[in-house]
């Protein structure tokens, strides 16, 4: 699908094309148009990261136990909610995984909501970006499973409870785990792309009132999809680190 170059992407391509081209040349990668090495989804994700860094700096600078600010209270409530979910799903030792889950949720929901800002797009409407997050989740839960139980203990989860079915179950589990990043990617990417296209379509047909309803729906979907992505990652971690009998 063709996407019009956004103004921030054009800015990066105009003033910062040379370092990207130098990097691509160093790794042996060549772009179709060297004058435009920056893509929209990368430019939008840079904005998301900058926003999160700024917010984190503001919260850190104004941290207070006695007089917490509104932004600090919002961040604490979000983190507390995520910790409660992790406690219910992962169980014992859940706190060590909460920072990763919080990072997933905040990164995805911010990326999703960026699309409602005029002249910007949601980077999550590009499957490249979403696939990257899904792959990170895949390696994270498998890595935590190996850390918690060792390689053999982690692989034992793939064999099922019945010994003579272990080879068959192992193959099925390998396929199932390999499908998980694809499932996470398609779910988030498809929902955000559909929401963006529906909103743009109604803006072109009826530019007043009605698109506001779809923008509100887009905001709702942005939070729901970020929550689902995070919850599924929690489930995967919970399965990976669970010991027999728990």
Question: If you had to describe this structure to a student in words, what would you say it looks like?
Answer:
With 246 residues, the chain is mainly α. The protein has a domain at 80-241. The protein has helices at 7-15, 17-27, 40-61, 70-89, 98-113, 127-156, 166-205, 210-241. The longest helix is centred in the C-terminal third of the chain and has 40 residues, at 166-205.
C-alpha Rg (nearest Å): 21 Å
Largest beta-sheet details = none
For the record, give the distance between the C-alpha atoms at the N and C termini, rounded to a whole number.
Answer: 47 Å
Helical residue percent band: over 70%
What spatial form do the alpha-carbon principal axes imply? Answer: globular
Helix/strand structural class: mainly alpha
| Percent in strands | under 5%
In total, the number of strands is 0
Short précis:
This protein has 246 residues and is an all-alpha fold. The protein has a domain at 80-241. It has eight helices and no strands.
Lay out the secondary structure.
Elements: H1 7-15, H2 17-27, H3 40-61, H4 70-89, H5 98-113, H6 127-156, H7 166-205, H8 210-241
Helix pairs in contact: 3-5, 4-5, 5-8, 6-7, 6-8, 7-8
């Amino acid at each position: 699908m063709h996407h019009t170059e956004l103004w921030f992407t054009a800015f990066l391509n105009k003033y910062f094309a040379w370092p990207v081209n130098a990097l691509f040349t160093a790794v042996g990668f060549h772009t179709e148009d060297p004058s435009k090495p920056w893509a929209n989804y990368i430019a939008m994700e840079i904005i998301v990261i900058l926003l999160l860094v700024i917010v984190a700096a503001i919260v850190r600078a104004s941290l207070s136990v006695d007089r917490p600010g509104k932004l600090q209270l919002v961040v604490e409530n979000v983190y507390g909610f995520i910790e409660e979910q992790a406690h219910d799903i992962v169980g014992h030792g859940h706190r060590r995984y909460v920072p990763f889950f919080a990072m997933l949720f905040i990164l995805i929901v911010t990326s999703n909501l960026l699309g409602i800002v005029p002249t910007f797009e949601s980077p999550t409407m590009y499957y490249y970006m979403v696939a990257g997050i899904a792959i990170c989740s895949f390696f994270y839960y498998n890595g935590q499973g190996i850390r918690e139980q060792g390689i053999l203990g982690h692989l034992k989860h793939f064999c099922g409870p019945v010994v003579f079915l272990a080879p068959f179950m192992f193959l099925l589990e390998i396929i199932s785990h390999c499908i998980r990043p694809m499932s996470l990617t398609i779910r988030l990417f498809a929902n955000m792309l559909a929401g963006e296209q529906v909103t743009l379509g109604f803006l072109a047909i009826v530019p007043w009132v009605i698109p506001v309803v779809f923008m509100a729906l887009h905001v709702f979907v942005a939070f729901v999809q970020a929550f689902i992505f995070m919850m599924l990652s929690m489930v995967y971690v919970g399965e990976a680190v669970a010991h027999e009998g728990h």
